Amino acid sequence: MAALLSLEDAQSRVLDLVDPRPVITLPVDRCIGRYLAEDLRANRTQPPADLSAMDGYALNGDGPWQLVGESRAGHPFAEPVGAGECVRISTGASMPEGADRVLIQENAEVEGGLVKCTHDHPDRGKHVRRRGFDFAKGDLVLKAGVRIGPAQLALAIGSGHAKLPVMQPLRVGVLDSGDELSANPEDCGPDQIPASNGAMISAMLAELGCEIVRIGPVGDDPDALAEALATADGLDMLVTSGGASVGDHDLMRPALENWGAHIDFWKVAIKPGKPLMVARREKTVIFGLPGNPVSSFVTCLLFVMPYARAAMGAAAPMPFRAVAKLGCDLAPTGSRREFLRGYWDGTTVVTSDSQDSSALATLAASNCLIDRPAESTALATGSRVECILL
Ligand SMILES: Nc1nc2c(c(=O)[nH]1)N[C@H]1C(S)=C(S)[C@@H](COP(=O)(O)OP(=O)(O)OC[C@H]3O[C@@H](n4cnc5c(N)ncnc54)[C@H](O)[C@@H]3O)O[C@H]1N2
Ligand code: MOO
């Protein structure tokens, strides 16, 4: 038997299949979860003027100070403030010309239009946010490839952008296959199980902004599979689940080949997820995921999501990793690299109950995968392990 591909080799072959998507422009509020396609420069300067960071009095010179007016956010005090003068100022309001520090109102005493400092006399620049300290017009505020989350969205808007360049979403077909699958979880016969993989994979990819076309469930029958695959014609990507292994009724490989797909690789030295298949037909990149639900989840996380992220412009397409301290002992591993379902409580990580690749309850109760290299020795409580956070 040919040696199985290593995780790294298989992942790099998957990334080699990436053709970057065309760039489109979308309103900012539709860009959440997508990746910025081009570097973004500020269209404006923030803060646009020197602003007060506190409620109090904007001062010129040593006190006491004559109160000569007010500067509110959006309504600046238009006149210069002379030596020995001050204005009432609110948080976010412009510093008037001549004033160079702010006395917070808790430290001020006001009597007959005269303001006195009771304690903590402010130094020059105290509680003043300088014009442009956050960013100036023309500054590079976000780099191409960054994921647009809530903070990046706020920065894009704050720097004067109503639209952003992102990559056209991938159109992805997601196909469940297996004679035992029921499309309706509330109407499932004694020899059936509900088809849950398609919904799970679709949810994982929809979170990245992919457009999903659900196909199936389709039975273990060459004609039915051929008919289902025909509906995926022209899609950017196809993800199948089930029928990827070596049994008499594992028909995905021949069905894909009859459809005209060329297999890039089949089988990776990982557990779960060994029978992963990657293929291509014209512009469609195809992932044949193993049917066991945890195997589907893990291969989607390790291969399909990185591919989709990279194709949609992500600078860092791989899953997020962290090092954690073990709260339990771990057995040695065999010839495959293992991804154990685990729970990290912020201090230590422990393995979840069942490591069976069909165990949905364990998967749903886990918040990380512990990454165990192949052929590693047993590990004792307190050792450090790498985890992928879910
Ligand atoms: N003789 C061997 N048998 C198996 C091998 C092997 O190397 N030699 N590999 C095993 C491994 S590892 C895996 S993983 C599975 C993968 O098999 P398939 O991809 O062919 O998956 P199926 O047989 O179709 O299904 C496996 C399991 O998962 C359930 N399933 C399938 N689709 C769905 C779905 N859409 N939603 C929920 N659950 C699904 C299915 O009912 C089966 O219980 O093969 C091993 N066998
Ligand atoms: O690799 Mo399979 O995915 O162990 O169950």
Automatic annotation (TrEMBL):
Keyword Magnesium appears in the UniProt entry: yes
GO terms classed as biological process: Mo-molybdopterin cofactor biosynthetic process
Q: What is this protein called?
A: Molybdopterin molybdenumtransferase
- Name the catalysed reactions: adenylyl-molybdopterin + molybdate = Mo-molybdopterin + AMP + H(+)
Co-factor(s): Mg(2+)
How would you classify this enzyme at the top EC level?
transferase
| Transmembrane residue ranges | none
Could you tell me the EC number(s) of this protein? 2.10.1.1
Lineage top rank: taxon: Bacteria
Example of a GO cellular component annotation carried by this entry: cytosol
Q: Which InterPro entries does this UniProt record tie to the protein?
A: MoaB/Mog-like_dom_sf, MoaB/Mog_dom, MoCF_biosynth_CS, MoeA-like, MoeA_C_domain_IV, MoeA_C_domain_IV_sf, MoeA_linker/N, MoeA_linker/N_sf
Query: Which family is this protein grouped under?
Result: Belongs to the MoeA family.
* Pathway involvement of the protein, from the record: Cofactor biosynthesis; molybdopterin biosynthesis
In terms of CDD domains, this protein maps to: MoeA (cd00887)
Function of the protein: Catalyzes the insertion of molybdate into adenylated molybdopterin with the concomitant release of AMP.
Q: Write out the entry's keywords from A to Z.
A: Magnesium, Metal-binding, Molybdenum, Molybdenum cofactor biosynthesis, Transferase
For molecular function, the Gene Ontology terms on record are:
metal ion binding; molybdopterin molybdotransferase activity
Asked if the record carries the keyword Membrane, the reply is no
Q: Name one Pfam family in it.
A: MoCF_biosynth
MoaB/Mog domain location: 173-310
